C-alpha cells in the first residue's frame, strides 16, 4: 500500500499533535477518501482505532449532491457514499434543523423554507414533476435572467464592482451550458479582451516512448482538449471579469479550488486579482496568480496532458455541483433542462440568502406554458 503521509514528514508530526479534526461537506465526498484518511491516521499515530484515536466531527447535508462517479449510475453513486463505508456504523448522529441561510420571517419566506424541506427530505416528492412557487421570479429570456443577476443599467459599475458581484452567480446543471452563459455575460462587459495561450504537451509512458511508431499528437490538437476542471487553452479575460480558481494555491489566504476572483490586471506570467469573499472590510484582498502546470490522469487520454496556464476560468456562471458551500444573495438558476442526480434542485435553491434574489430561467412546452420540473431524490442517501 502506498504511504500517503510519510511518518517523518511535517504533516505527520502535525497530525500526531492534533486534538480534533473537523471535516465538512461530507456527503459529496467518496467513501474511499474517509477510509484512506482512517488508514493514514492509524499508521502515523500508531493507533489501530478509528482515525488513529483522533476525534473527528463530520458535517454535511445528505439532501445535497452525492459523490460524482464518472459514467456512474444510481447504484454506483449510492455505493460511493460514506453511508456504505465501515466507518458509518461508528458515527454518532446529531441533527441540525434550523435553516441558517434563509432567515426571513415573512409568509413567503416561511413557505419557501417548508418548500425547500419538501424537495430535500420528503421522499413523497421523489422524482415528481413539481411546480415552482408562484412568488419565485421566472423568465423564458436568457437576456432577462442575466440582467436580473448582473444588472446592465450601468455595466461598468455593475460588472466591475466586487461589492455587487461576490454574492451573484448563475447556476445550471452542465459544464457546456456554464461555458455558454459565461461567454454571454462576458460579451456584455465593457473593455478590451486579452487572450492568453497555454503551453501544452503530451507525456507518454516509457512503453510508448520505446515504440518509435507511436502516434504523436500535435500541439494544435492538444489545445482543442478541454478536460474537466482545467482552464481553456485559449483563456480570454477582461479587466473586471469574474474567474474561479481551479487549484489549491494557498489555503491560508483563501486561494482554494472554487474561490472566485475579480481580475484587476492581466500580465503574461501573472494575474493580479481581488478575492471575492464575504468580509465586511473595505480593503480588497489582492493576490497574484501565476501560470502553473496542470496534468490529467492517465485514464483520461492515451497520454498525460500537461498544460501550463493560469488555473482559472470564467465564473459568472457555475455548475450547481460547484456551488455547494456558496451563499448567494442574487442567484440565477437555469432550469431549461431537469436535474440528473440526487439533490441538485435542492442545492440550487438553497444557495440563496434572499428569496427576492432568486431568478429562474425556464423552458416551456408547445403551448408556451411553463412546464413542471423533475426533482430527484435517492431516499437511501438520506439520514
Automatic annotation (TrEMBL):
Name of the protein in question: ATP-dependent DNA helicase
A molecular-function term among this protein's GO annotations: ATP hydrolysis activity
EC numbers, comma separated: 5.6.2.3
Enzyme class label: isomerase
Originating gene: pif1_3
Chemical reaction(s) catalysed: ATP + H2O = ADP + phosphate + H(+)
Domain DNA helicase Pif1-like DEAD-box helicase: 6-115
InterPro entries for the chain: DNA_helicase_pif1-like_DEAD, P-loop_NTPase, Pif1-like_2B_dom
Alphabetical list of Pfam families matching this protein: PIF1, Pif1_2B_dom
Amino acid at each position: 500500500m502506498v504511504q500517503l503521509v510519510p511518518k517523518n514528514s511535517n504533516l505527520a508530526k502535525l497530525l500526531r499533535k492534533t486534538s480534533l479534526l473537523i471535516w465538512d461537506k461530507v456527503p459529496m465526498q467518496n467513501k474511499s477518501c474517509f477510509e484512506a484518511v482512517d488508514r493514514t491516521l492509524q499508521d502515523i499515530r500508531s493507533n489501530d482505532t478509528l482515525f488513529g484515536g483522533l476525534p473527528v466531527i463530520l458535517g454535511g447535508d445528505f439532501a445535497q449532491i452525492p459523490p460524482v462517479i464518472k459514467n456512474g449510475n444510481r447504484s454506483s453513486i449510492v455505493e460511493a457514499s460514506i453511508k456504505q463505508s465501515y466507518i458509518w456504523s461508528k458515527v454518532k448522529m446529531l441533527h441540525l434543523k434550523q435553516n441558517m441561510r434563509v432567515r426571513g420571517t415573512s409568509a413567503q419566506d416561511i413557505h419557501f423554507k417548508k418548500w425547500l424541506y419538501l424537495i430535500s427530505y420528503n421522499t413523497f416528492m421523489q422524482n415528481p414533476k413539481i411546480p415552482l412557487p408562484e412568488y419565485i421570479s421566472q423568465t423564458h429570456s436568457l437576456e432577462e435572467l442575466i440582467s436580473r443577476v448582473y444588472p446592465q443599467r450601468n455595466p461598468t459599475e455593475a460588472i466591475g464592482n466586487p461589492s455587487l458581484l461576490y454574492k451573484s452567480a448563475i447556476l445550471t446543471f452542465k459544464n457546456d451550458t456554464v461555458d455558454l452563459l459565461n461567454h454571454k455575460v462576458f460579451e456584455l462587459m465593457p473593455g478590451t479582451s486579452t487572450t492568453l495561450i497555454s503551453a501544452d504537451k503530451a507525456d507518454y509512458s516509457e512503453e510508448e516512448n520505446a515504440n518509435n511508431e507511436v502516434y504523436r499528437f500535435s500541439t494544435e490538437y492538444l489545445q482543442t482538449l478541454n478536460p474537466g476542471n482545467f482552464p481553456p487553452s485559449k483563456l480570454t479575460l477582461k479587466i473586471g471579469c469574474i474567474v474561479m480558481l481551479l487549484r489549491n494555491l494557498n489555503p491560508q489566504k483563501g486561494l482554494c479550488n472554487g474561490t472566485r476572483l475579480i481580475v484587476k490586471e492581466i500580465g503574461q506570467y501573472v494575474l493580479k486579482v481581488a478575492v471575492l469573499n464575504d468580509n465586511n472590510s473595505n480593503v480588497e484582498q489582492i493576490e497574484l496568480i501565476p501560470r502553473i502546470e496542470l496534468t490529467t490522469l492517465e485514464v483520461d487520454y492515451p497520454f498525460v496532458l500537461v498544460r501550463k496556464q493560469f488555473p482559472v476560468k470564467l465564473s459568472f456562471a457555475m455548475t450547481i455541483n460547484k456551488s455547494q458551500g456558496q451563499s448567494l444573495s442574487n442567484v440565477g438558476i437555469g432550469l431549461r433542462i431537469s436535474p440528473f442526480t440526487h439533490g441538485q434542485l435542492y442545492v440550487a435553491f438553497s444557495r440563496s440568502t434572499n428569496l427576492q434574489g432568486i431568478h429562474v430561467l425556464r423552458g416551456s412546452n408547445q403551448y408556451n406554458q411553463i412546464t413542471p420540473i423533475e426533482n430527484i431524490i435517492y431516499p437511501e442517501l438520506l439520514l
